[in-house]
Design brief:
Elements (H helix, E strand, L loop, with lengths): L15 H5 L4 E6 L5 E7 L7 E7 L13 H6 L3 E6 L14 H18 L3 E11 L1 H12 L3 E7 L5 H11 L4 H14 L8 H4 L9 E6 L7 H10 L5 E6 L11 H14 L1
Parallel strand pairs: 3-4, 3-5, 5-6, 6-7, 7-8
Antiparallel strand pairs: 1-2, 2-4
Helix pairs in contact: 3-4, 5-6
Length: 268
């Protein structure tokens, strides 16, 4: 199973200072299984304590992928914590990653902000996630009283269903497909119970949610985004379809950043 889902753990080649001229700190904090996470913390000096957003990348990526949104949150007075989930970037390796491991690491990041940072307003923490980081975001948000808004991009509705579609796309079927899916379920414990299409309706209706998805997304099909949109219970929510965008090129579309900017301005 490790070979089926293996990827090379890579470090970021740039950072907030190099990309945007914004100072940052390299920080480390504990997560489950006695592992340590690496993250970039950007302190906004607009006031003594500030609202803070946790940015979480997708599977096989690192914190670098979400650098395009940093200036948006920074200009609106947010601290920014850009985490690298286990087995990604400079964080400790810890085997296979899945929705549950991402959620655990996001929850560890929330604890770090609440318990260790004097410059964070613990009542104003938001989550921003992409792909598997988005899936983990929904579960983490359902477990924490500190989360006050959510932004997700390219999120799948159900991990097992996504994997099944991928294997069929590669020509796997019949008994071999069933064997692979059985192995997957065994290696991703409780995966089915913590998927976005189970978690999103459990999130408080008081938490604003922005969902962004490309209409040509081949990683997490557009139909998954529609399914999640229809399950949202939040009183304040917005669904944005980026016409022609694929899974990994959402930031190439000006509309993506404009929609995030408008949402952050409203919830700030």
């Amino acid at each position: 199973m490790n070979r089926l889902y293996a990827f090379k753990q890579t470090r970021a080649k740039t950072n907030p200072q190099l990309q945007h001229g914004i100072a940052f700190q390299d920080v480390h904090f504990p997560t489950v299984n006695n592992k340590t996470l690496h993250a970039w913390f950007i302190a906004n000096e607009s006031t003594e304590t500030n609202p803070t957003v946790i940015l979480t990348h997708g599977w096989s990526q690192n914190a670098e992928y979400l650098l395009p949104v940093v200036p948006i949150f920074y200009k609106h007075g947010f601290n920014v914590l850009m985490i690298e989930s286990r087995s990604h970037g400079q964080s400790d390796h810890d085997g296979l990653s899945h929705t549950g491991t991402f959620s655990e690491d996001i929850q560890s990041a929330i604890r770090y902000l609440v318990q260790e940072r004097d410059d964070v307003d613990s009542n104003k923490i938001g989550l921003f996630g992409f792909s598997m980081g988005a899936a983990g975001t929904y579960h983490a948000a359902s477990q924490s009283e500190h989360v006050k808004f959510i932004v997700t991009m390219g999120c799948y509705a159900n991990h097992q269903r996504l994997l099944r579609r991928d294997w069929i796309k590669y020509g796997i079927s019949g008994r071999l497909l069933q064997m692979i899916m059985d192995l997957t379920r065994n290696n991703f414990p409780n995966d089915e119970e913590i998927q976005p299409n189970k978690m999103i309706s459990r999130i408080s209706e008081d938490i604003p949610i922005l969902i962004i998805h490309g209409t040509l997304d081949g990683g997490a099909p557009f139909e998954d985004a529609i399914e999640l949109r229809d399950l949202v219970k939040a009183r304040v929510s917005k669904f944005v379809a980026i016409e022609g965008a694929k899974h990994l090129n959402l930031f190439r579309y000006e509309q993506t950043l404009k929609e995030i900017d408008q949402f952050v301005k409203c919830i700030r």
